[in-house]
């Protein structure tokens, strides 16, 4: 509970308002809790920067122009947790990467005080304010011996919002591990297992709350210690209630400790992200090292993120790590959150490990090398660390008898094996990802992140045959392609369990459709910047494909087949229905989705050319412009035959927004011409888009 002084009763039932400033500038210890910032002695009428505004100090009067609207979220907690500023003494600053932190005392008790650094920019102050309000709100819900005790808060003009918590004399676990002399005294049988149990206890408690409280930033630097090495979790600035009414924010915490689903933009997650981070903390306890220091110095943030997301990069354990700890770490670091144990189960496993370590001499024996890597996967090890490879057991089928496949179906791919075959032993499947096209896994090949497409062998024989044909077509088409705006084909393999598997580069930005479906992200896109750039990228891919001999026709161009890098570089994918254009054979009609299909592609028996891709690209431009999937309302109210007829006859066309630039409107109209001979060629479309880019960027 909060600490209340005898004078608090005059404040607790009032709204949060600016305190009166008696004798400001002349008496720095006056009773309103206000004193000027250190080193500042304002004269009457002199401006002083305070929390998010400039106020005028006038003796005996309240500061003018002050607004406490920023802190309305804390009003319900004021009665219990408000601390009079006059009861707080600030003694000295404490080094911290998180806000401004000071050591002080409250009515004689040592405390840690977090507040704003008001010398920062308004943007940074607003961010800090939001985090500190979040921390206070979260900590008012918590009471546990392994979580740093929250004492209360106050608000003053010179410090802004201040949060008081108990002072831990042992500093952070990271500080301890960074001290070689002290760290060398720690053992798994004693201090390390005890610290691990303490933090697991804190997480288990938080995850038992309703709603569940997710920390989202568990790491050694957020674990405080007493002088007797009792560990307590701190740093709740990024903590979040888990509710199912809103989408959880991604990209919080430090990437080295972040679960894969926390790194993926728009990916939902649960409290299992804390279990993953705790697994990384166990590697810190074991090795003493901050994870991925070497990689952070030699790789870009995007490369590290991609390797973490695909499981190609994992923190390492020491050769001396006890086998019982190795097993727990491996389970916590499962790529699929559903395969990680719950925090209460982790706590139970750690208590069992403690008994093993303290009672059985063999319990402290290092784990065998084969326990640390996926069967059939080769790893290079250094002199002091072991790789933590955590495979995801992705089954080929679910339920019923196990179904296998045969290479006899794929003999037409035989000529491609010499150049594109990938040894199945070099492939690690990390986890399944949602996809409307076959089955798709995230994985890595010799450390390179990849996307793996393969057959769903639990389907009917008819569906499997259709998927075989499409996947072989995709592989055959992609072996011909090498362009910066087409997803890179890496190779293929076959196993009886998974059937034919196609490996392509992994694009961390997901699909253009995924981006457009995210209102917050889509609102930031503009035609002069991202939209025209994405359009040019895909037009470049189509111009390249249509320049090949024979011409390669995609036949299914749409936003969901356009993948993005984290820098919004667009690449065309989805070549399952791609087809060479030859004049010796009749082209198949009725492929692709009707909303994006050219009229001649919808008409049975109608011949067509690569101009069907130009039409589909015109529809994609409308997606870029409006953000919407075309004809959603019509699909809900009209039957397929009627909709097909309207599209084929030109009486139905996708809409553009009133704000669409005129230069884009002209290009869309030309691409959507009913007569394919009137549509521009893809290279001409590319040329027009580049001209439009110049025009858009020159406009004020």
From TrEMBL:
The superkingdom of the source organism is: Eukaryota
Q: Which GO terms describe its molecular function?
A: ATP binding; protein serine/threonine kinase activity
Q: What is this protein called?
A: Protein kinase
Keyword Nucleus on this protein?
no
Q: Which organism is it from?
A: Achlya hypogyna
PROSITE patterns named in the record:
PROTEIN_KINASE_DOM
Looking up Gene3D superfamilies in the UniProt record yields: Transferase(Phosphotransferase) domain 1 (1.10.510.10)
Instruction: From the UniProt entry, list the residue stretches annotated as the region Disordered.
Output: 1-48, 355-399
Start-end of Basic and acidic residues biased regions: 367-385
**Boundaries of each Protein kinase domain copy?**
77-357, 422-700
Alphabetical keyword list: Kinase, Transferase
Pfam families attached to this UniProt entry? PK_Tyr_Ser-Thr
